[in-house]
Design brief:
The chain is of the alpha/beta class. Helix content is 46%, strand content 21%. Strands 3, 4, 5, 6, 7, 8, 9, 10 and 11 form a nine-stranded mixed sheet that branches. A two-stranded antiparallel ribbon has the order 1-2. Helix 1 packs across helix 2, helix 1 crosses helix 4 and helix 2 packs across helix 3. The protein starts with a helix and ends in a 7-residue tail after the last helix. Keywords: DNA-binding, Transcription, Transcription regulation.
């Protein structure tokens, strides 16, 4: 027993340090005592007392309170950075240990293009958590360029991106979907020249926008007469479905029961304008993690079932 006590004491110290690190991390993220207390499942007085204890241990004030919330002091910024580093290291060690076992658990960190996250990923995650209930999932969505950045910065194990992405690590093709011009009234590409209806576009990464511009310039001598720009593809789709104007959307966003004309984009030159590819990317070391291996298997099973899927 005497031999075990120091080891148990060390483990307890690390446990308490990790708890303090989590408190500092969440306070820095929320910059609000009430919201931070809710995330930590603590009362505000209890959290305030914990913060005072932490500041006393460090011998410095870490946050300044004001009507606008919490602001980290210069000393606080240093301690918060240390806390985040410690939590990241702890997670890395857990993942390494978990990768040595055959059981799928631990946290699976996914960064996914928003369009895939809205329209395709939910069913995959449903199957994944059903098969591996002990695994945890951390999901962030954004543009493909943001997904690549998240992988570079170690914020995700794997990324799901759209279009042509310059990636030197592991890269698995998932599926290819067709681009359609969709509208309530326009039935052919030629009708676009006659209509006064607006062309509804959504903000996306520059690669996708460039592809659409190239396709348009090949078919039309002038820009659309009227244009509407929205910040989300779902808003763009709903505006088209409700007859406000026409849009160019990938097949992943469309359903057979959508009451709308769907005109596939065609082009004599195959390099742009017709389709949009979706890829699973990541570093080789991440693909060795058991939870990532399991996720890849589920993703590929779903990808094979897509009618537009091409190898």
């Amino acid at each position: 027993m005497k031999i075990m006590r120091p080891s148990l004491l060390v483990l307890e110290v690390y446990r308490l340090m990790a708890t303090e690190a989590e408190i500092l991390k969440i306070l820095a993220e929320e910059r609000n005592m009430r919201k931070a207390a809710e995330r930590l499942f603590l009362s505000q007085p209890a959290l305030s007392q914990r913060l005072q204890t932490i500041e006393k241990d460090w011998g410095a004030q870490l946050f300044i309170r004001s009507q606008k919330g919490l602001t980290a002091t210069p000393a606080g910024e240093q301690v918060i950075a240390y806390a985040k580093e410690m939590l990241a290291k702890k997670e890395e060690i857990f993942e390494t240990i978990q990768s040595l076992t055959t059981k799928v658990n631990g946290t699976l960190k996914i960064a996914c293009a928003s369009i895939v996250g809205q329209n395709w990923l939910p069913k995959i995650l449903q199957d994944f958590v059903s098969k591996y209930p002990e695994a945890k999932i951390s999901l962030m969505t954004g543009w493909s360029s943001e997904i690549v950045k998240a992988l570079y910065e170690g914020e995700a194990h794997v990324g799901i991106v759209r279009g042509q992405v310059d990636w030197k690590g592991e890269k698995i093709h998932l599926f290819r979907d067709t681009l359609y011009l969709v509208d309530k009234e326009v039935k052919t590409i030629e009708d676009v020249l006659k209509t006064d209806r607006p062309f509804i576009q959504y903000k996306s990464d520059s690669n996708y926008y460039q592809e659409i511009q190239q396709w348009w310039q090949q078919h039309f001598a002038s820009n659309p007469r009227k244009q509407i720009l929205v910040d989300q593809i779902e808003i763009c789709k709903q505006m088209a479905l409700n007859g406000i104007g026409y849009a160019i959307l990938p097949s992943i966003t469309l359903n057979d029961h959508d009451a709308i004309h769907k005109i596939p984009l065609s082009n004599d030159e195959k390099e742009f304008g017709l389709t949009r590819d979706t890829w699973l990317i990541g570093y080789e070391s991440s693909f060795e993690l058991r939870q990532v291996e399991a996720f890849v298997e589920v993703v590929q099973d779903h990808a094979r079932c897509l009618f537009d899927y091409t190898k």
